[in-house]
Design a protein that fits this description.
Elements: E1 17-19, E2 26-28, H1 94-112, H2 132-148, H3 150-156, H4 161-182, H5 191-205, H6 212-223, H7 229-243, H8 250-272, H9 282-303, H10 305-310, H11 318-323, H12 328-333, H13 338-362, H14 370-389, H15 403-417
Antiparallel strand pairs: 1-2
Helix pairs in contact: 1-8, 1-9, 2-3, 2-4, 2-6, 3-14, 4-6, 4-7, 4-8, 5-7, 7-8, 8-9, 9-13, 9-14, 13-14, 14-15
Amino acid sequence: MSAKMLWLVPSQSDLGFIYSSRSGNLSLASFNLLSHCRPNKYKKQKWNPNLYPCRTDLRCPCLGNSGSESLSSTVPQVLSMVATSSAGEMAVSSEEKVYNVVLRQAALVKRQSRPSGDLDFRPDIVVPGNLGLLSEAYDRCGEICAEYAKTFYLGTLLMTPERRRAIWAIYVWCRRTDELVDGPNAPHITPTALERWEARLEDLFQGRPFDMLDAALSDTVNKFPVDIQPFKDMIEGMRMDLRKSRYKNFDELYLYCYYVAGTVGLMSVPVMGIAPESSATTETVYNAALALGIANQLTNILRDVGEDAQRGRIYLPQDELAQAGISDEDIFAGKVTDKWRNFMKKQIMRARKFFDEAENGVTELSASSRWPVWASLLLYRQILDEIEANDYDNFTKRAYVSKAKKLVALPVAYARSLIGASTSFA
């Protein structure tokens, strides 16, 4: 087995954590990510910006000129596989654009899949002085996952050690990315900060991580056939949050959901692996992973309508609201009417269809990877049930799954994870 080597860039001020000079232990500030989809923005701990300064490279602070840079300034747009850049591209639906990304990821896995442990030698990456730091970084990623996504973390314990560490590393990168636009410093984050974060992403994919948590992901993408595009697309979703608070139709909303949540499925499939006995195509499994991310994000949106409205945001298709006779003012007023109930019923039905599509691919994953995915799917799907139980009042009531229901769902998810992959996939 060939050696794996990484170069750690020494840092004085890292994004989200400091390396304690007294104890040598990693300390991480509060982040807010739920399961393996778009983060839950309303968790508990407080951020101390004095202890955890936010920087995206060694030279430039993430907050720009003390947070004073205008968000309306000209922003160089990073090329995305699914970003619209010309009038001609607008004729192509978001689903078609995203599917092109799916095909690319599936092709990458087919080309680069290799037996676990058979790692390529990378002579251009330098071994750091203490390889134990890499192991410590993975451990810290696991601690973060255990604290903020307990159910998902328990499921990852059934994975092989290499796979679960890789999933933890992806999880932490996603939550740090989301924290840039949804965390305590979000009002001061500029598009330039996201450009620097993307440059930092490109560095870690080249084996030049900025800090220890980056090093865990850099090690992961060198071991598994993980492509950078979904990571870049997630950053594009953060850019959308800076400049956009309305979505004309579901096509626009679908693209947003892909950026901020569907991308996670594309990041994760190469790590979780497809069962050797599965006869499903790689594209089928990737489509199911994408569907789960879309379903989870649609569920987030429907659950958080009231909270988003308080921030002046409406993540619902404007044309469908108009067809239902509902205005933005109605949503800001937070009144549950028959029009609203009928509208919500249709939105919930759409989300459930994506969950149904996702189920088709979970059984095709490697056996050790199925439980956390099933747990996420079943628990998130129940949030839709809770919205219905609240009489569609997602303005003043937050739909959540009780601990008792979670305890019931876990063995159900485990039982489903034992169902083997298809041998004759149609």
